[in-house]
Write a structure and sequence with these properties.
Membrane topology: Multi-pass membrane protein
Protein name: Claudin
CATH class of one domain: Mainly Alpha
Number of strands: 5
Number of helices: 4
Strand order of the largest sheet: 4-3-2-1-5
CATH architecture of one domain: Up-down Bundle
Keywords: Cell junction, Cell membrane, Membrane, Tight junction, Transmembrane, Transmembrane helix
Subcellular location: Cell junction, Tight junction; Cell membrane
CATH topology of one domain: Butyryl-CoA Dehydrogenase, subunit A, domain 3
Main location: other
């Protein structure tokens, strides 16, 4: 359950971070007057004096289609993860929720596993797509000019990849546990029927 919670928290932090991509300044001099960072909701500029100036993206229509799709996928991933956390907690054997309905409890845990895997896939697609756009623009600007600032991968992308991996791993583990629990319930049900058949 720890990996599930870590993946869920990681997705939230990743989505709200402003470091999805950072400015890269290649050239003979490594000293730059400012560093630009851009996320899904805002962009920040850090000056050499230490001053940080952030600007929130006000209009949704001003952003590119890629940005809007990435936002939507990350928000969907967070919503699915929140539902998955509640479902998996209700389906855990250590909880007293639905103790009188074991078959339903196993199905709820299985649903939580599916939600975790789906959330992880949504986040993985969003971060990989965004990262691919950064890489393509980086190489295109490299051929066009050597003096303009270029964007590189930010910390949020690496956190997003880690969080999506944890969600996928947690979902697969929960899936295996729910299948094992379902098999146990079936075995407990099938046993008496076989023994009673002997008396018949």
């Amino acid at each position: 359950m720890i990996s599930h919670i870590r993946g869920f928290i990681g997705l939230i932090v990743c989505t709200t971070m402003s470091e999805w991509k950072t400015s890269s300044h290649p050239g003979p001099s490594l000293l730059t007057a400012q560093t630009t960072q851009e996320g899904l909701w805002m962009s920040c500029v850090t000056y050499s004096t230490g001053q940080v100036n952030c600007k929130v993206f006000e209009s949704l229509l001003e952003q590119s289609t890629d940005m809007q799709i990435t936002r939507a996928l990350m928000v969907i991933s967070i919503l699915l993860s929140s539902l998955a956390v509640m479902s998996s907690m209700a389906g855990m054997e250590c909880t007293t929720c639905m103790d009188d309905k074991q078959q339903l409890k196993v199905k709820v845990a299985f649903g939580g596993a599916v939600l975790f895997v789906t959330a992880g896939l949504c986040a993985l697609v969003a971060t990989s797509w965004y990262g691919n756009k950064i890489m393509v623009n980086f190489h295109n600007q490299h051929h066009e000019s050597q003096h303009h600032s270029r964007y590189d991968f930010g910390k949020a992308l690496f956190l997003g990849w880690a969080a999506s991996s944890l969600s996928l791993l947690g979902g697969l583990i929960l899936f295996c546990n729910s299948k094992a629990g379902n098999s146990g319930q079936y075995g407990q049900y099938a046993g008496p029927s076989q023994s009673s058949a002997k008396y018949i």
